[in-house]
Amino acid sequence: MNYLPNIIFAIILVVGIGYFVKNVKKLFRNIKLGKAKDISDNKSQRWKNMAMIALGQSKMVKRPVSGFFHIIVYVGFIIINIEVLEIIIDGLFGTHRIGLSVLPKSLYGFLIGAFEILAALVFVAVTVFWIRRNIIKIKRFFNAEMKGWPKNDGNIILYFEMVLMTLFLVMNATDLAFQNAGTGGNVISQFISPIFGDNPETLNIIERSAWWLHIIGILVFLNYLYFSKHLHILLAFPNTYYAKLTPKGQFPNNEAVTKEVKLMMDPDADPYAAPPESDADETPEKFGASDVQDLSWLNLLNAYSCTECGRCTSECPANLTGKKLSPRKIMMDTRDRLEEVGKNIDANKGTFVDDGKQLLNDYITPEELWACTSCNACVEACPISIDPLNIIMEMRNYLVMEQSAAPMELNSMMTNIENNGAPWPYNQQDRLNWKNE
Amino acid sequence: MSEQLTVPTMAELMAEGKEPDILFWVGSAGSYDDRAKKITKAFVKILNKANVNFAVLGTEESATGDLAKRAGNEFLFQMQAVMNIEVLNAYNIKRIVTCDPHSFNCLKNEYPGLGGNYEVLHHTQFIKELITSGKLDIKNSDYNGKRITFHDPCYLGRANSEYNAPRDVLNTLNATLLEMKRSKSTALCCGAGGAQMFKEPEKGDKDINELRTEDALKTNPEIIATGCPYCMTMMSDGVKVKEKENEIKVMDVAELIASSQGL
Ligand code: SF4
Ligand code: SF4
Predict the structure, then answer these.
(1) Distance B188 CA to ligand 1 centre (A)
(2) What CATH architecture does domain B10-129 belong to?
(3) How far does A230 lie from chain B, in Å, by closest CA?
């Protein structure tokens, strides 16, 4: 027997999965560059959210057209990949359609038949997506941040899926053993089969090519994920699990600030006291975020999960009125900067070497940050519960508390609050005057 | 008119050895902004009419710090919060109602972490409570059949998922409630949130309040109803920009209820 194909197959499989694992490790490391944040509460609610939003796509279908086709692609893609199991077993052990010999014929036929129908549906859905992006040119796919790689990425993935689905169907259509097995599973492929003629040798060559290309394609796809917005097919799950459960309007209170405020308000505290010994060489906590390491790991997980669908941006009042702010861009910038920091760490043997850049200014400008109305429309719109607003607020905190760089009018508003307890320069003693006016 | 308003302060009640059932948090806009003061008074008229045992902090009230927080000044926010909590806790306050969704959100969600635990209601929720419990009787209103569209304030709606209370209250007026295309969870912000109210907008091709006013105008309303003093400013300005101020009124839910009852 000739074991060469089995060995080649095993090597391809190990390399493909190995490279994927390596990237997943890098992904974990990069996400952990973010600040610690304890999210161990409300486990049952979190599982429920994950089941509803990630698995059940409950937020996707708020836009019925894209939601409907997305579900087809999503369900189709997951289920068809069960077929990969058979391919792997066949590849490793040199069998051919192991399912045919171990499963009842009717069950095998049912499974493959279902896969074929789904493959055809996925093909149609993906074509619809392609038309929406390239012919109808839906607006949210053409904002400023969608030039270059993000735009290509969106299309590449569609081509990928078209090719994979085609290969799957061709593989079945040219497989004489399968076509003649009478499983009834060739619901779609029987119509494609005649195109390829009836020369068994030619058919075999095409079938083998499609088979190899199919499995190689899937491995390439798996490894493409890390570089693509398609990481969401994996990360949507943890992302929806860890998403905020408190009311959207509730912004976290900064604990480091609480400590300082308590100290200041404490009548017994001695303002001239030297800081306790242990604090002497600790750098004082930085307020807010100017770079990705200042954000929480959840912000960073959000960034990797973002699908770049632009639903957030298409509902953002600032963006709708021509301001530079785009919540999608906030997420994309965060991911890009995080990748840059990650590469820096790789290149410098595990430590980050200051590259003179940061998320603030080099990626996200104060102009964008100050345009936000904190309205939560982006958070509401995101199909996988990403929170761009939290990043915006963290960065505003940095601008104001570390740099005193708020717009002038806001500074005077805050001075008023400080001096007379209202955003306007009115006397606090006049606070009840309305009663007699 | 002013002599009709009964507005006891906490300090006064305390001196008489009394406690209110609920504290009315007036908020900075409600205290100082000319337009918002009218909302404050309308709400007080409702409270008086329903014989609610309430009080205000008066000059002991200070900004919640919400604005400072959204503007990025967490420090100032927490200073304000700690100060206010001290006052509120000293008076043993349990329940608070406010006409300002920003104060509502801040008091309800952000004060507990700093030691201020209260049951906080938006005034539309409280009015609804008054109506359901029979304390406030809505008789035939002047708004019968009037075309009213409600603009959801972000900090009441999306931020705290309260979409029904204002609508339920408006429904007691027998008016024709019209929904904008973007409403409830997908309502567009009026443009004031996140401290935008206090600064010039960034460069763009339109002001947000204008876009939101267009949303409202598409329903062809006679009245645009709101539940927030800042939305009030933004929507009123928007209606002026569209030169519709003679045909379309912008009114707070409290004002609609008060005026429908001849208060
Ligand atoms: S919260 Fe800010 S970024 Fe998000 S939609 Fe509203 S204005 Fe846009
Ligand atoms: S943040 Fe959410 S809504 Fe916005 S582009 Fe990313 S996935 Fe889409």
Answers:
(1) 10
(2) 3-Layer(aba) Sandwich (3.40)
(3) 26
